[in-house]
């Protein structure tokens, strides 16, 4: 039983995703490296920026379809798995939902599917379809990809995949969601809001809703000193920066009625300083300038 998988996927992960431990017995496994996959892919745009220790689930098995033939020796399983991720082409103002074949097991002759890009005002809200495309792949290989794009806007974006695979004998199986598809937040220009976690305190940069309304709140004169006292009391003196090197950033801006309370504040690096661990303040403020 031949198995092709993308670099970064283990047989154990594939066996768990397909709920088929007998995959571990296979002696015919081909692993495709990143360069070979890149040559097969037509992905446009950049993926979201991730800083710090905390990352979203980065599984490469987000959608699967499988067929197990019982009662035969040797056992037969036919399956295909897809990775889903979002990219944004900041220069052209376009946001993309991408699917990429991440594993092929056994006999998969073709795949027919509908791929949609979806949007919402809220990261965990209800997503509505912005655009859909129907397509197919004959003899799909690991690394083959498909994408759907929409014009950029301030929104949370994700995607969805439905369809079937067909074996050479004509049997079909539906594609099912296994892990949730990736989500990103962009502004009107298509710039992706970054993921960031302060490396010492684990304070996470708040991810805003996409429908905030401007309402100015005044800056309190002691917000910086209050935050410094709070940080050192709870997390100790900073080990990754000096207080003179950072701005105390309002994660929800005062222009959108963000609070001066410590739970809306995070230290970010000033221009002119270099640091491998702390994100620059201007990267976030530039994003908000086009909210």
Strand content is 35-45%
Q: Point out poorly predicted stretches.
A: none
Gross morphology is elongated
For the sheet with most strands, the description reads:
7 strands, mixed
What is the terminal-to-terminal distance? 51 Å
The secondary-structure class comes to mainly beta
Helix-strand topology string: EHEHEEEEEEEEEEEEHEEH
Tally of individual helices: 4
Percent helix? 10-25%
| Overall pLDDT score | 91
Radius of gyration: 23 Å
The beta-strand count equals 16
Quaternary state of this entry equals single chain
Number of domains: 2
Protein architecture, described:
It is a single chain. This protein is mainly β. Helix content is 12%, strand content 36%. It is built from 4 helices and 16 strands. It has helices at residues 11-18, 34-40, 223-235, 281-288; strands spanning 3-6, 29-32, 50-51, 63-69, 76-89, 94-105, 110-120, 128-138, 145-151, 155-166, 172-174, 176-177, 184-186, 195-196, 246-250, 265-269. It is elongated and about 75 Å long. The model has no long low-confidence stretch (mean pLDDT 91).
